[in-house]
Amino acid sequence: MYSLLIKHLSKHISLTNEEIILLTTAFRAKRLKKKEFLLHQGETSRQETFVTKGCLRAYYVNDKGEEHIAQFAVEDWWIGDMYSFLTDTPSTLYIEALEDCELLQIDRPGLEELYLKLPKMERFFRIIIQNAFIASQNRVISSMSKTADERYLDFIRKYPNIEQRIPQYQVAAYLGVTPEFLSRIRKKFARN
Amino acid sequence: MYSLLIKHLSKHISLTNEEIILLTTAFRAKRLKKKEFLLHQGETSRQETFVTKGCLRAYYVNDKGEEHIAQFAVEDWWIGDMYSFLTDTPSTLYIEALEDCELLQIDRPGLEELYLKLPKMERFFRIIIQNAFIASQNRVISSMSKTADERYLDFIRKYPNIEQRIPQYQVAAYLGVTPEFLSRIRKKFARN
DNA sequence: CGCGACGTTGATTTGCCTCAACGATTGTGG
DNA sequence: CCACAATCGTTGAGGCAAATCAACGTCGCG
Taking the C1' atom of D12, which residue's CA lies nearest? Predict the structure, then answer.
C-alpha cells in the first residue's frame, strides 16, 4: 500500500530510506467499503487522504437538496476538505466511497510534525496544491465559458477511464447538468 | 512599497531583519498605468506579482471572443498565471490594470533562489496557494449550484468595496452573466 | 420473481442570452 | 469650454439551452 505513496512523492522530491520510514509511520492505512463515508457534512475533517485503491467523490448538497460533485479521486490522487482540515471548522462536503477503497491518511498533528522533521514536505504539498489550484481555476473558466457539450467532451478526454467506473448521474452532478440532459448529450454524440 | 509586502508575509511566517533585506532584493517594483497590460494571452508569464496599490483583472478570451474574468486583485493580493509561470508555457490569460498600479514582482530564478536561501518561503507560498485553491473550489461549487442572483449577492458580500472601483460589465464577466442580465438583477434588488 | 436504482424519452417551462435601441456620463480634441 | 464621440448602463422583444416533470424500459440483485 505504501509503495504507491512513496512512488507518488518521489515524482516531486527525492527521499532517503530513513525518510521513507519516517513517512510510512506518519500515514495510517484505512479501508472503506463502497457507499461508506470518509466525511459527512458538518463534521470537521481531521485527515488528508491519499488513495491507493478505489474511487471516491467529494460532494456538496445545497439548500435545495441538489448534489454537486467538487472532485472525484482514484488511485494516486488526494482527497479531503482542505478548508475544514486547515481551519478546524465543520465541513461543507460529503466524501463517499464509490468502490471499495484502500487509503492512507495523515492527521493535522502528524502533518505538522512531518513538516518539522522533513521540511521538503512543505515543498511537496506546495506543488500538489499548486496543481490542484490550477485545475480548479481551469474548471471555473470552463464552467463559465463552455457549453455542457464541450464540458462533457473535456471530461471524457481528461478522465477517460473514470466514466466506466461511476454512474452517469454522478458525471452529470460533476458537470453541473441534470442526468436527463447528460443522457441527451451522449445520445447526440453517439450518432456520430 | 515594500512595507505592505513585509506586513503581508509576517501574517504567516516570522522574519528577521536580515531576511527582510533578502526579500526586498528579491522583489522588483513596477508601475502600471490604467489599461496597461501585465500579461498578454500567448506570452509566457515570467513573474508572480504582489499588488501594493491599485486594481487588476486576469481574464480569459474564448474562441467566441467572450471575456471571462478569472480573478480580480487589489492591494495585498497576488496575481499572475501560475500555470504559465510554473510550466514555462504560453499563458491563456490577459492581465490588465483597471487603475494605476504599484506592484512588486519576483521571477522564477529569483523565487527558486529564495526557496533555497529562505526555506520558510515554501511554507508561505503553500499557505497562499492553499487559500487560493479553497477560494477557487468555492467558486466552482457556487457557479454550479447557485443562480446568478445568489452569485451576485455572494460577490457584493465577499468584495463589498470592489464594486465601486470597477465597471459593472466586468462584474458581469466575473459572475458569468451578460451585462444586460446583471443590470436586471440589480434593478430587482434595488426595489427592496 | 419483484423491487429499487439507473438511464432514456417527450412535453413544457424557465433562466439567461441576443440583438437592437436609447439615455447618461465621461473624456477628448479643436 | 463646448461639441462630439466613445463608453457604459438600462430597457424591451424574441430566442435558445438547459431544467423540470412525468412516464417508461432495463438491468442487477435480495
Answer: B180
